[in-house]
Amino acid sequence: MDAKKIVLEVGEAELHFTVSLDDYNRFVNETMPADKISPSLRFLRRCVDPKDAAALKTFTDQGLTMDIVSALVEEFRPRLEIMAKK
To answer: Considering the entire predicted model, what is its pTM?
Structure first.
């Protein structure tokens, strides 16, 4: 899977990200039950366009890290329905 360019509208700002499968896998591997914020911040900072880094920091400093990372991951991953056959 090639890196995917994603633009999120956060408030009145647009944040531009480039997310690769390696970035996503690293994020998932770093996430632990007792530590979700730090890996999420690192993931967002790795993927954000440098020109949007200051705006991203403004939002993460307001406690919006998990909201932004959730939206980013939802846009990155393909939608797929999986059901177990019985």
So the answer is: 0.90
Chain center to CA of 70: 6
Reduced to 3 states (helix: H, G, I; strand: E, B; else coil), residue 5 is strand
- Say if residues 26 and 43 touch (Cβ distance below 8 Å): yes
Q: What is the distance between the alpha carbons of residues 18 and 10, in angstroms, rounded to a whole number?
A: 16
DSSP assignment of 24-37: HHHHHHH-BTTB-H
What values do phi and psi take at 68, rounded to 5?
-70, -45
Distances (CA, A) of 43 to 12, 19, 39, 80, 85: 22, 9, 6, 23, 35
Instruction: Judge whether residue 1 has pLDDT over 80.
Output: no
